[in-house]
Amino acid sequence: MAEAADFQGSGPSPARRWLRRTTALVAGAPLLAGLVQLPTAGPAHADGQPTAKADGDAGSVAVAVDSLTPSAPTDGDTVTVSGTVTNNGKQTVTDAHVGLRLGAEINTRSSIDAIARDGDDLQGTVAPEIDDKYSEKFSKLTPGVAEHFNISVPVDDLDLGDDGVYEFAVSLSGQTSAQPWEQILGIQRTFLPWQPGEAGTTTKTTALWPLVSTTHMAAETGANEEQTPVFLNDDLAKEISPGGRLNQMVTLGKDLDVTWVVDPDLLASVDAMTGNYSVRDGDRTVAGTHQDVAKQWLADLQDAVADKEVISLPFADPDLASLAHNGTDVTGSLNQLKSATDVIHNTVDPILHVKPSTDFAWPVDGAIDRSIVKVATSAGADKVIARSDSLQETSGLPYTPSAARPIGGGTTAVVADDRLSTAFEGDLAKASSSTLAVQRFLAQSLALNHQTSEQRSVVVAPQRMPSGSQARAMAEALRALQGGTWSESQKLSAAAAAKPDPEATTKVPSASSYPSALRKKELPRSAFVQIARTQDTLDNFKVVLSDPSRVATPFGRALNREMSASWRGRADEAASFRSGVKSYLDGLTGRVRLIDKSETKLSGRSATIPVTVQNNLVQDVGPLVLRLTSTNPTRLEIDGADYEEQPISVSGGHSQSVKFTTSANANGRATVIAQLYTADGRKYGDPVTFDVKVTEITATVMLVIGGGVLLLVLAGFRMYTQRKRAAAREAENAENAENAEKAEKAEKAENNGSDGPDAAAEDPEAPEDSEDGPENQEGTDGRPEEESGARSRAGDPEQPSDPTPDTPAESADPSGTGERVDR
């Protein structure tokens, strides 16, 4: 049915205000009569109902409703309420009892909000108790002591009227020594949805079930072939272990008809845990031990989503609002969003074995403005999940319109209902808080259904990372809703494709309308600047590697994580993570570097200067270009110019030197700069600067050296001629001695005569003297004349130049401090 406009913040309708006043008058009339009739007694209702405490506070007794089952009863059911009452006052409460109270039907969603807001306020209207037999009595309530109660009542005895939402309250009545009359000392209001039969028109409800977590993996990986992943801590293992938050999300969601919304980063992180992984522990890393837990969680998740709709967020759930407000003017920021989107199918499909939808973008809390929508759709999404407190109705519709809204440019805003979506925020660790949240959610859903006879599509988009208690409350509410009679489940894609309400607003708010509380938690512009610089360093590094994928993948995903919406409210942790990624990358790039050089001494007109490149990575690097530049080419030239470039590649774990030819033109120091460049001409790493001390050889020095060389040559020639003359004299003396000996023998033979016994007979076979003379015959000692002459010369007096060698011996002393270059 149609009703007055009912939006967040609007007051109760005139009919409701009239009903409250009438109820107050009806309840007050017996009290006035009792005061007149019994002036000496404590105030009491004529119909036996106690009065509410006059001071209007929450009461001295706290009433907690821990359980209300069934949450949405139907005909024939019995409603059971259990909980505790605790005396928070200083006086003992006597003659106390817990009773149930059923109020009038609630006709608007805003009235539900008002009652929930003042659920324990004694100043508000208090409905009468139902039959006294449905109560539990306590003789006394001692201060500080909690007493348990459990009351059951058949639905038929509640006398519920038409279908709708009813106020349902549990109260504690009693008296104290200071006020010895029965009065209401504590109350807790909640709601009882009543739809026993099938509704004439059902609401199509889409519930999102988010699997999102914080960042857990570092950019760092092991140096081994497998690149063992490193985790920042062991928190993810706790979340997926039995009883952990994410473990409960999977276990609870498995039996619900929901649309799963997953972050690929979470899936990739758990998948990495199924193998070898390390965990940071202070300044060291230790081996991870939760492989079995990770495998089991993934197996359970695969089973849970096997036949369900799965929506994938971009990798690491980037903060779209922060990017839109602070990052679009930083070069490369939008490319980060695109890379986070492109990696979805390489992550979700292989792990979950389902094909996810990538058509949806989900800004934080569904808060949008025009810039957020523009950024959200820049990576390919054409649907934006918003929330009704952001895209508010301005046309005065008396009902909540369907979720789908065309907002221009082919983009559809899927507007989640803010009341249903925020029903499970806050601390729901206590059973009483969880029960109140469930009943309020169901009451809002039924009230929405009763607004009009037109069927509508409604979306519930809860907080991204529900706690375990919040997840349990959500699951309880959705089970009751899906088992009820006024709602039917629907996929998110169907809700987005539903026919939009022509009267619903489609105007996207401006940036000035973005909530200030959310803006304060955004990533600052400096974060996007740092991300861009790290990306530039990574791009420069990849091109020099033989296997760039070893750094492109881990660092690319780390940069996506730096933009995650999970950093909201954790600015210090976000800054620390960004700095850690940059420091680790700088450390890797620094392993490929130029070796520092000391001053080099250059003596001569030309020489070669070696420059060494060191590679401490496990993989080869190259091609790189090494450039050596002279800052003073008039004094020192590199290969006849200002500089020279040479290509270089270095194997992993090795060093390699490159030699540059230099030429000196003048004396003095010349500064030289060595710098590595990538193949595309960008500088790589830090330069190495060193001095070359040039000592030029002048003309005068050359003349002196030339004269000295000439003197050495002349001295050598003189020595040669002297030795030749000495050898000639020795040969002449030897010949003269031989001739004399022959003459002496001939003379003796002539003197002895031909008949003497010792006369020599003429030998016809005796050889004649050689034409060349005796110098060509063997020496007298049977050795060649050359050898004989050598022996003869050995006894000659020494020449003055013989003891001194031609050049001095090489010094064995260490070189000076300067580095000498090759010549």
TrEMBL record:
<dbReference type="Pfam" id="PF19516">
    <property type="entry name" value="DUF6049"/>
</dbReference>
<feature type="region of interest" description="Disordered">
    <location>
        <begin position="67"/>
        <end position="86"/>
    </location>
</feature>
<dbReference type="InterPro" id="IPR046112">
    <property type="entry name" value="DUF6049"/>
</dbReference>
<feature type="region of interest" description="Disordered">
    <location>
        <begin position="731"/>
        <end position="823"/>
    </location>
</feature>
<keyword id="KW-0812">Transmembrane</keyword>
<feature type="compositionally biased region" description="Basic and acidic residues">
    <location>
        <begin position="780"/>
        <end position="796"/>
    </location>
</feature>
<feature type="transmembrane region" description="Helical">
    <location>
        <begin position="697"/>
        <end position="717"/>
    </location>
</feature>
<dbReference type="InterPro" id="IPR013783">
    <property type="entry name" value="Ig-like_fold"/>
</dbReference>
<protein>
    <submittedName>
        <fullName>DUF6049 family protein</fullName>
    </submittedName>
</protein>
<keyword id="KW-0472">Membrane</keyword>
<keyword id="KW-1133">Transmembrane helix</keyword>
<feature type="compositionally biased region" description="Low complexity">
    <location>
        <begin position="74"/>
        <end position="86"/>
    </location>
</feature>
<feature type="compositionally biased region" description="Basic and acidic residues">
    <location>
        <begin position="739"/>
        <end position="750"/>
    </location>
</feature>
<feature type="compositionally biased region" description="Acidic residues">
    <location>
        <begin position="760"/>
        <end position="775"/>
    </location>
</feature>
<feature type="region of interest" description="Disordered">
    <location>
        <begin position="497"/>
        <end position="516"/>
    </location>
</feature>
<dbReference type="InterPro" id="IPR010916">
    <property type="entry name" value="TonB_box_CS"/>
</dbReference>
